[in-house]
Amino acid sequence: xxxxxxxxxxxxxxxxxxxxxxxxxxxxxxxxxxxxxxxxxxxxxxxxxxxxxxxxxxxxxxxxxxxxxxxxxxxxxxxxxxxxxxxxxxxxxxxxxxxxxxxxxxxxxxxxxxxxxxxxxxxxxxxxxxxxxxxxxxxxxxxxxxxxxxxxxxxxxxxxxxxxxxxxxxxxxxxxxxxxxxxxxxxxxxxxxxxxxxxxxxxxxxxxxxxxxxxxxxxxxxxxxxxxxxxxxxxxxxxxxxxxxxxxxxxxxxxxxxxxxxxxxxxxxxxxxxx
Length: 275
Ligand SMILES: [Fe+2]
Ligand SMILES: [Fe+2]
Description:
Number of strands: 0
Bound molecules: fe (ii) ion
Shape: globular
Number of domains: 1
Structural class: mainly alpha
């Protein structure tokens, strides 16, 4: 999965994005009013605490194993991007934790699902680990969109919008790397990988929509409707990575131009139901 020299421009683009996003976060963080009163009923508060506790754990990883795999591939620019990506996830985790403090709620010391997911990722190669990230992030897009649009508390809506903007770019970042990683995989094998990916995506979506159903309903969203949106997003990401057009477009893309999977283009494809 080592990048060709001409692919470096692609990661220069992502490095610029991640670096400029640090400044965006600093501006947003300075404007945040954490002392604003909580606008939730006890039932709604319980639902969001349940969600935030799991997201806080899920995004707190130090990324040491992931970065180690990237370093072994030998692409310094991509590894720098990944380092900033891991820092963004840790920032999300800190924000979820701060929101739990605002709700006067406890933090989870650990959860079996997070431990299992972490062990599974560590056992896999870089490419497969990125696929799992992409599944989780495609689902997260729908969850945080629901939070941004419909949460009954202004602080939660702000948190949803903040994380959603980052996750849109994360999805595009993973797609860019995975398109490159699968570009030379034979078509029949890509088909089989897409099928397994779809099954994993379906299972993960069902688990998340059940586990976070109360929070989704508190945002005015029916879990089954979110489930359908997640499956569309996952199908879109699979096609963006493994579709024939995607593979050809990746190989033929002139160097130095905007990333072919920039977040706007990907969002449009996924909302259409695929690339
Ligand atoms: Fe995140
Ligand atoms: Fe992410």
